[in-house]
């Protein structure tokens, strides 16, 4: 089972790295555009363009900061061992889907199955935490029965 955990973990790391790369590229492009913007006789046009590029840089810096936080959260996860109750790093199979309790990274596939990478702080993550095989919970009117935790 740890091979499955490693695969899911690596896919989450890849998801975060793509986010980091996109944010870093956005920062570089905004800075380049700002540096290439030349002052025109239109007066405020130059300042408006620079302000817009600064806003774009700030937005990308915020995205990079969030991606760094996700990477820190991933670095705390162990892919070894089998859990008996749902905790960060657990793979949880239910009657209504499979979950990897790590970060919110959406739908990922491994071993021909789909898993939803969810944060322990998300609504479903909070309900999954601490659950063991056989337990159940309801979310949005849907009953989830835990079939396995590893």
Outline the biggest β-sheet. 6 strands, mixed
Structural class: alpha+beta
C-alpha termini separation: 7 Å
Radius of gyration (Å): 21 Å
Low-confidence stretches: none
Overall body shape: elongated
The number of domains: 2
By DSSP (H or I, 4+ residues per run), the number of helices equals 3
Order of helices and strands: HHEEEEHEE
How much of the sequence is in beta strands?
A: 15-25%
Overall helicity? 40-55%
Total count of strands: 6
Protein name: Transcription elongation GreA/GreB family factor
Notes on the protein architecture:
This is Transcription elongation GreA/GreB family factor. It is elongated, with a radius of gyration of 21 Å. It has a six-stranded mixed sheet with strand order 3-4-2-1-6-5. It is built from three helices and six strands. A hairpin with a 2-residue loop joins β5 (136-139) and β6. The longest helix has 35 residues, at 2-36. It is 49% helix and 21% strand. The chain folds into two domains: 2-75; 91-149, no CATH class. It starts with a helix and ends with a strand.
Summarize the structure.
This protein is α+β, with helices and mostly antiparallel strands.
Defining key terms:
elongated, six-stranded mixed β-sheet, 2 domains, alpha+beta, 150 residues, 21% strand, Transcription elongation GreA/GreB family factor, single chain
């Amino acid at each position: 089972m740890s091979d499955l955990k490693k695969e899911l973990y690596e896919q989450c790391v890849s998801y975060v790295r793509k986010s980091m790369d996109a944010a870093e590229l956005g920062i570089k492009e905004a800075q380049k555009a700002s540096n290439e913007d030349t002052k025109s006789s239109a007066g405020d046009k130059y300042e408006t363009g620079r302000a817009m590029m600064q806003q774009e840089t700030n937005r990308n810096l915020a995205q990079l900061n969030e991606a760094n936080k996700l990477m820190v959260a991933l670095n705390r996860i162990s892919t070894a061992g089998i859990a008996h109750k749902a905790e960060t790093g657990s793979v949880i199979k239910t009657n209504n889907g499979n979950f990897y309790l790590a970060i919110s990274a959406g739908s990922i596939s491994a071993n021909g199955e789909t898993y939803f990478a969810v944060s322990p702080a998300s609504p479903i993550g909070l309900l999954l935490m601490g659950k063991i095989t056989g337990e159940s919970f309801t979310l949005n009117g849907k009953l989830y029965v835990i079939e396995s935790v590893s």
